[in-house]
Write a structure and sequence with these properties.
The chain is of the alpha+beta class. The chain has five domains: 6-91, DNA Primase, Chain A (Alpha-Beta Complex), CATH 3.90.580.10; 106-238, DNA primase, catalytic core, N-terminal domain (DNA primase DNAg catalytic core, N-terminal domain, Alpha-Beta Complex), CATH 3.90.980; 254-362, Dna Topoisomerase Vi A Subunit, Chain: A, domain 2, CATH 3.40.1360; 374-438, no CATH class; 462-587, DNAb Helicase, Chain A, CATH 1.10.860.10. Helix content is 54%, strand content 10%. The protein contains 26 helices and 16 strands. The strands form four sheets. The chain has a five-stranded antiparallel sheet with strand order 1-2-3-4-5. A hairpin with a 5-residue loop joins strand 9 (202-208) and strand 10. Helix 14 crosses helix 15 (349-357), helix 20 (462-477) packs parallel to helix 22 (497-512) and helix 20 (462-477) crosses helix 24 (528-541). The longest helix is centred in the last third of the chain and has 31 residues, at 417-447. The protein is globular. The chain binds zinc ion. Zinc ion (ZN) binds at residues 39, 41-42, 49, 60, 62-63, 65.
Length: 588
């Protein structure tokens, strides 16, 4: 993360009082020395979200989110640390000092391309609204877009001309090279010095990223050009595999999910009908990067692709990609219309909401798709079909749910439930053996200091975590005691990677800046979730006194836990089995 100067950050904190900022998101009530409200990060009926004006920090006793004003903005607006700092600075008109490393040539060019895109978007939009834009406007109206949608999505028109954009951009001070770098023009193959408008006679859809930058364009032809849609070429700011259309609006929606559709028109139709959670890929199949982008904003995706064969294929692929990043996936099948746009036109928004409510989960969708492929009157096909069914069902964790689906398949195929269940258990047993092997590997690595649990709340490792949490809590609450603490405790005394890292980083930072308040340093040093855990140390681990004896006692407890762990590290296979059982018992 780029570092901002201490002076700048303290100025920012002075101007962005945490109570004022949080009040824009949460209805706060004064309660003795702090403010209390309903937590914006989890669902609750009684307030457990506290804001402390003296310490300039927040903490939720329900979901353990916590931190300073920057962490709060990172979590609320889904922004990275530098973005949150910029966001807060903008809100109070504070200038963010330039970082020479960032302000390199590349970032200059980036800015210039974004600026050109903005200028071009305005040009296309104004053209659409002028006489010259009639063909575009007619098309848009025919597709049922409201005037509000045209403005909201900044839709425009590129006239049927070789140089109208080129001329306009020249008049605004941009050179041929500028235009080439932004991908707004094509270069003549025969005469390389000659450039001409890339988008001609097309309805223009500006593509806007989640930071509200116009990063490129999609253009829909109004002629019978074989390329129905044409996108900006990839460049410094436009990567089509890493962005989603309308994510700038959809990232903060009330549905608590994102609706993934195929095209720009589907997105706009859905937003227009009140479903502002809709996004689309940019003319290509869904990529893992796009799945991760969605994951930043939600845990739930509803796929709503076209109902034709291509749409079904795309749905299957998208399910896999989304599942791989642990997203909860549902599928809406649009019947009685080719795509969501047509469906809404034919049946209205209410009916579409019913479709969303009735969306099948990914299991049902997969089973449905498998059933579709096979002819059940042919024995060999039936057998193959059942094998595929069972493979899908074996992935379900709940026994009851598995039974429901097994019943259904028994009914559908005429096979006995007993046979199907026996076969299913076979598959599950084989899978379990595989999984056990992986699990054992994981625990081994945990024991040998690999990835250990980070939370003081994790049930296993509780004694260890408590001892480590006490140390961190001491530092956070009493930073002036750091020298005394460091004399007694070394990073090697820690068992979990997370706490060891926190300890090391905090010691280092407090040495650099002895008068610094550790709880205000956290947002620049750790991820928001980690900051929440550390706030928990301050708020929940709590009341330790800080005389020398107490520090020594904490150090001793930590060393004792470490000793126990070391004793079990050189573990034999027999002991390992016992260790696994102990872990299981402790987990209950
Ligand atoms: Zn909460």
């Amino acid at each position: 993360m780029p570092q901002f100067g201490e002076e700048f950050l303290s100025e920012l904190r002075n101007r962005c009082d945490i109570v004022t900022v949080v009040s824009r998101y949460v209805n706060l009530k004064k309660s003795s020395s702090s403010f209390v409200g309903l937590c914006p990060f989890h669902n609750e009926k009684t307030p457990s979200f506290h804001v402390n004006p003296a310490k300039q920090m927040f903490y939720c006793f329900g979901c353990h989110a916590g931190g300073d004003v920057i962490t709060f903005i990172m979590k609320s607006e889904n922004l990275t640390y530098p973005e949150a700092v910029q966001f807060l600075a903008d809100s109070v008109g504070l200038h963010v000092p330039k970082n020479t490393a960032i302000d390199s040539e590349i970032s200059f060019l980036r800015k210039r391309i974004l600026e050109m895109n903005r200028v071009a978007a305005r040009y296309f939009h104004n053209t659409l609204m002028s006489d010259e834009g009639k063909p575009g406007l007619e098309y848009i109206k025919k597709r049922g877009l409201s005037p509000q949608s045209i403005v909201r999505f900044g839709i425009g028109y590129a006239p049927e001309s070789w140089d109208s954009l080129v001329k306009y951009m020249h008049s605004q001070g941009y050179s041929d090279n500028d235009l080439k770098s932004a991908g707004l023009v094509s270069v003549s193959e025969s005469k390389e010095t000659r450039i001409f408008d890339k988008f001609r006679n097309r309805v223009m859809f500006p593509i806007i990223d989640y930071r509200n930058n116009i990063i490129g364009f999609g253009g829909r032809t109004l002629a019978d050009d074989p390329a129905k849609y044409l996108n900006s070429p990839e460049n410094l700011v436009f990567r089509k595999g890493e962005n989603l259309y309308a994510i700038n609006y959809a990232r903060t929606n009330k549905l608590g999910a994102l609706i993934l559709v195929e095209g720009y028109m589907d997105v706009i139709a859905l937003h227009q009908a009140g479903f502002n959670a809709a996004v689309a890929t940019l003319g290509t199949a869904l990529t893992p990067n796009q799945a991760r982008l969605m994951k930043r904003f939600t845990d739930k995706i509803i796929i709503c692709y076209d109902s034709d064969a291509a749409g079904k294929n795309a749905t299957r692929r998208a399910i896999e990609i989304l599942k791989n990043v642990d997203l909860d996936v549902k599928v809406v099948t649009v019947t009685g219309g080719k795509d969501p746009d047509e469906f809404i036109k034919a049946y209205g928004a209410e009916k579409f909401r019913e479709l969303l409510d009735g969306s099948s989960n990914d299991i049902e969708y997969k089973l449905g798709e498998i059933g579709f492929k096979y002819n059940m009157d042919i024995d060999s096909e039936k057998a193959a079909c059942v094998r595929e069914y069972l493979a899908v069902i074996s992935g379900i964790k709940s026994r009851v749910e598995r039974e429901v689906y097994t019943d259904r398949i028994a009914r559908e195929t005429g096979l006995t439930k007993e046979n199907l269940t026996a076969e299913l258990e076979n598959i599950i047993r084989k899978k379990a053996i595989e999984e056990k092997k992986t699990e054992e590997k994981k625990i081994y690595s945990e024991l040998s200091g690999g990835k250990a649990g980070t939370g003081f709340r994790t049930k296993k490792n509780i004694a260890v975590s408590r001892a480590e949490g006490d140390v961190i809590s001491l530092i956070l609450n009493f930073p002036q005691k750091i020298e005394q603490i460091e004399k007694l405790i070394s990073p090697d005394d820690f068992i979990t990677d997370f706490n060891r890292r926190v300890y090391t980083v905090l010691c280092e930072k407090l040495k650099e800046n002895p008068s610094g308040e550790p709880h205000l340093m956290l947002s620049s040093l750790f991820e928001p979730d980690e900051v929440g855990i550390l706030m928990g140390y301050i708020m929940e681990v709590g009341a330790l006194s800080v005389d020398g004896d107490e520090i020594a006692a904490v150090a001793e407890r930590l060393k004792a836990e470490k000793k126990k762990k070391d004793a079990s590290a050189g573990i034999s296979d027999a002991n390992f089995q016992k260790y696994l059982e102990d872990l299981k018992k402790k987990g209950k």
